């Protein structure tokens, strides 16, 4: 069974090919125009998706030397994210599905990121239930993942998501978008220990909600003072974010009595967070899971394909 999948929800054009549950080819093209616009402009992103999507399709089919007619299923991100970008992928996916008369499976973008941990793993490696922490530019949420298709969002951010705060902190320092990698790079260059300069915003007792607007404001004050290096500010900021996310994740596990902890989306590619959580989980009796490869933490079509695969075999979609 071949599954051809599309992901165009934001600014990365990605096409992947699965043979059953194994990823056999993926082609992803990243847009660089943000150096001009300082952010993702939906209309600009959609045009660039239109230019990149067919070369990506050609790449994955040529890589495995199969024709489009040999594809058994089409899968595509349908929601949520930037509508013009989504419509580009959805239009191409629907047109292809109609042309070759094969079933199409629409996939929720957030669920795709959660299913990314199945990539390069046996289905038996995932034991339910899990507490799932998802972090991207606009999303910062905790889920209970009870079974394959049973997910419940239990808490979320009440203002900025942490990764959005990373980008805004970078912008305060006059760096380009995306700012997350830049801030993390600056933090890694700092030689020193954590001094708790910024507030550890945990909200009311036992709350699992997130808030990063106050932390962002505190960072702005320090930048305006000009008394501290950008490296130290970045280090203190990143360490504070990591501690907030870790505390909320462990608090959720305790409240719901679940010992399996799962990181999804951009948060799962942050080495500082993974190291911080991994150093503590064994003391608390928890087990953690991260995507096998860092590319699976980014927007990619492989996660859409693997989500579609499990829907096909579990629910008989298209049969």
Describe this structure in words.
It contains 10 helices and 10 strands. It is α/β, with parallel strands linked by helices and 319 residues long. The chain folds into 2 domains: 134 residues, 2-Layer Sandwich (Nucleotidyltransferase, domain 5); 170 residues, 2-Layer Sandwich (Nucleotidyltransferase, domain 5), CATH 3.30.420.40. Strand 7 and strand 8 form a beta hairpin. 44% of the residues are buried. The mean pLDDT is 87.
Question: Helix count?
Answer: 10
Q: Please, what is the average pLDDT?
A: 87
Q: Which secondary-structure class do the elements indicate? A: alpha/beta
CATH architecture of the largest domain: 2-Layer Sandwich
What is the CA-atom radius of gyration, in angstroms? 20 Å
| Strand tally | 10
User: Roughly how many Å apart are the termini?
Assistant: 13 Å
User: Which spans have pLDDT < 50 for at least 5 consecutive residues?
Assistant: none
Q: Going across the major beta sheet, what is the strand order?
A: 3-2-1-4-5
Main sheet properties: 5 strands, mixed
Helix fraction, binned, reads: 40-55%
Number of domains: 2
CATH third-tier fold name of the largest domain: Nucleotidyltransferase, domain 5
- Specify the CATH homologous superfamily of the largest domain: ATPase, nucleotide binding domain
- Give the CA-based shape: globular
Relative strand content: 15-25%
> Could you give the order of the helices and strands?
EEEHHEHEHEEEHHHHEHEH
- What CATH first level of the largest domain would be assigned? Alpha Beta
């Amino acid at each position: 069974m071949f599954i051809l999948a599309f992901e165009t929800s934001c600014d990365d054009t990605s096409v992947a090919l699965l043979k059953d549950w194994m990823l056999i080819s993926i082609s992803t093209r990243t847009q660089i125009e943000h150096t001009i616009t300082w952010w993702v402009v939906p209309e600009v992103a959609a045009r660039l998706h239109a230019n990149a999507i067919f070369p990506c399709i050609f790449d994955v089919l040529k890589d495995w030397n199969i024709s489009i007619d040999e594809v058994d299923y089409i899968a595509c991100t349908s929601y949520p994210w930037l509508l013009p970008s989504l419509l580009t992928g959805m239009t191409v996916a629907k047109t292809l599905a109609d042309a070759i008369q094969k079933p199409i499976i629409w996939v929720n973008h957030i669920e795709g990121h959660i299913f990314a941990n199945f990539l390069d793993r046996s289905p038996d490696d995932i034991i339910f239930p899990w507490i799932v922490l998802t972090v991207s530019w606009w999303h910062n949420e905790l889920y209970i993942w009870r079974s394959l298709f049973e997910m419940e969002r239990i808490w979320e951010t009440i203002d900025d998501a942490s990764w959005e705060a990373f980008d805004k902190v970078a912008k305060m320092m006059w760096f380009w978008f995306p700012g997350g990698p830049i801030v993390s790079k600056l933090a890694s260059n700092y030689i020193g220990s954590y001094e708790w300069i910024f507030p550890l915003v945990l909200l009311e007792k036992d709350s699992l909600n997130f808030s990063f607007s106050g932390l962002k404001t505190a960072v702005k004050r320090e930048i305006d003072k000009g008394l501290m290096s950008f490296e130290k500010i970045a280090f203190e900021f990143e360490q504070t974010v990591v501690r907030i996310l870790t505390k909320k994740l462990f608090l959720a596990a305790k409240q719901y009595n679940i010992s399996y902890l799962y990181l999804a989306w951009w948060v799962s590619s942050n080495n500082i967070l993974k190291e911080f959580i991994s150093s503590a989980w064994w003391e608390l009796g928890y087990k953690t899971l991260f995507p096998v490869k860092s590319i699976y933490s980014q927007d990619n079509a492989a996660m859409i394909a693997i989500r579609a695969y499990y829907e096909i075999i579990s629910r008989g979609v298209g049969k």
